[in-house]
Target: Recombination-associated protein RdgC
Amino acid sequence: MWFRNLLVYRLTQSVSLNEETLIKALETKLAKPCTFQELSTYGFIAPFGKSEEASLTHVSQDFYLIAARKEERILPASVVKEALQEKVDVIEARDARKVYKKEKDQLKDEVIQDLLPRAFSRKKVTYAVIAPSLGLIFVDTTSTAKAEELLSTLREALGGLPLRPMSVKVAPSATLTDWVKSQKASDGFHVLEDCELRDTFEDGGIIRCKRQDLSSDEIQTHLKSGKVITQLALMWQDKLSFVLDDKLAIKRIKFEDLLLDEADKEGGDDEVSQFDATFLLMMMTFSEFLPALLEALGGEEQPLGI
Model:
């Protein structure tokens, strides 16, 4: 149970939550298999354990782990396009007339419905943690669309969920650029060797660097010419490394050996205990890491009225 990515959302009002209330809410939006006539389904599943008795949330201290699964039938666009063209060709040859867009759209729907029963299905799971005492929700993804899909479904289940994406007072790209220029990040953070540089004007160039000395003349020349850092690999307190982008998405999180060893030691041999120890250690680390990151980036932005 180690998150690999992170999008963080701020609860804009206090939320009263307990395990029983949350489970009852999640039960109203359970995941289900796609029928032959459905393109996709979405709903909540147990984040740990595959038995029917497995709980829809794993709770440790004031952290609530949940999971949502999307199942969708895979219909390659090329297959749909080819089947649609065959229908159009038949109609145009039979009726000696042109098939226009509106009718094509109707035919496309028919093609999709015909192909669905033969389509393969794919399942993807997204994990999230609700932390009411911190006023935060952590989602294990860098895709805003995936995060919003989970949060929208959770909002429907709970009957409301006041939140907004985490934001900071200073543009992250400005801070990251300063760190690479000076080769010194805020206390507790260390600049690593991967970054993305981008021109500030529209359709400008992009340079991606891996395992590069970011203090080199080449990199510094790009910065002097006006490029800014839009992604930067960082280390925090020898506990975790990650890549931060200019939208505050935290990617490629890697927990260092110190934490992995501690989780193994605390969890013991029992699978449930190991899962709980790993989950709690991860969340305690995030609870310490996130405030430090926000402070390093100039502080969290608080919209008027919040």
Notes: The chain has three domains: 7-75+118-165, 78-116, 172-296. The helical segments are 19-26, 77-95, 101-115, 144-158, 172-182, 217-224, 257-267, 271-296. The chain has eight helices and twelve strands.
